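Two proteins follow. First one:
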Amino acid sequence: MSTEYLLVSVAMAVAAGLVGCFAVMRRMALAADALSHVALPGIGLALALHVNSVFGAVAMLFFGALLVWAMERKARVGTETVIGVLFSVALAIGSLMTSGEDLIEALFGGTGALSRVEIAFGLASAIAVTVFIITQRNKLVVILVSPDVARTAGIQVRRLNLVYLEMFALTIALGLRYLGVLLMGALIIIPAATAKRLAKNLTAMLSIAVGAAVLSTLAGTFVAQSLHRGTGPLIVTFAAVLFLLSFVIR
């Protein structure tokens, strides 16, 4: 296993832990799993055009996040409802466009070597997500407490919500290579849920979530290599074990 592979996987885990904290606080626990399925049609289209599947996934996820943001206000329903509708349609279309080994890898992730493009994209995207969450966390908290107070304070609530959704989508794209469409949502939500149980403030929650996500990713990756098993299921299994341990620790 290359150093670059480990570096990108750790960067992905850091981004997942940070984004997941606000997803849990915004009650978007199921949204991560549902929105990740939107990448499937993009992967199928990229394979048909013989380009790197990560670009198709990113484009479709960005479009999906934008569509959720636009429909949420007009439809007057919750974010999770809009994402649920979008997920069902995307899963149906993606299943029609992808088949065989390509579909299995898209759903559960793969273990092949990363190209230079994938390494550069992974590191740059993880840094962008991390910087966004760290610099905007106070504004995101104010919006959670009261959107009206946030507007009074001069915060562009709609715009910030859009950027958060796009960062959320980008984080999902980061982990598709490791966990696939079906499992990436779990890495975003489970470490954040673990941190919420243990933390007493936001800083502690962010730190614990990042630690749990990184630990689960490294443990799952090394065990998968030793047992010659899929990386994604083992990463999620370790994350679930840490969540269960939080009941004992607390």
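Second one, unrelated to the first:
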Amino acid sequence: MDRANGNMKSIDNLAAEAQGGVQQTAAPHRTRIKLCGLSKPEDVSHAIDLGADAIGLVFYPPSPRSVSIAQAVDLVHDVPPFVSVVGLFVNPTPDWIREVVSNVGLTLLQFHGDETAAQSETLAGVAGLPWLRALRVAADTQPADLVKSALNYSAASGLLFDTHVEGYGGGGKVFDWSLIPAELARRAVLSGGLNAQNVSDAIHRVRPYAVDVSSGIEVAGARGVKDHARMAAFVRAVRAADAE
């Protein structure tokens, strides 16, 4: 019995030491990466090879980055497990949501229009999927406004912060990152004019959960056409920022 008790004590001690070791070597922050507006299979394959955490498909026909359901089915065909497929929608009808999700293997919805919190929850219920809410940050936006919106959209899995522009969708413009309250960083997906040159500064200043890029990984002057070198440079810059 004493020997058994001794063994138990040894195990307990080892467990305590292991736990202490884990606490002392906590993993550094890893910013998740979403590459959005992909429209070609080779772009999706490249994003996966680069280690992107999520790819974004646009289901908003007026956008130059929009894809049809048939295109989307082809794009997600070889997406491996644990890579999220995010569908971006702007003021969609329940029928449009239902048609897309019944054909395309999405894992997350992103609402980028004027959807209220109640409408967002209803649409997500139709899809049976979690959702992100895009919050457009204007020149006169105050941190308190973002906190209020965050509370209003508390059912969202996360909040995507983008620059307010005319119309819908990203305009490739940066907003004042200091407007994002620190208490929202854990839920924040930072977007709006990010590229390989400025994403490190954005990460250091905001410490968002994730970053989202579209125009910043495109061929200059060609909206919707992805540049594989810029995609790779963006991912490298994020990983370098995390390591600093």
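SUMMARY FIELD: Residues 117 and 153 are 5 Å apart (CA to CA). The helical segments are 2-24, 41-50, 69-75, 94-101, 117-127, 143-152, 199-206, 228-243.
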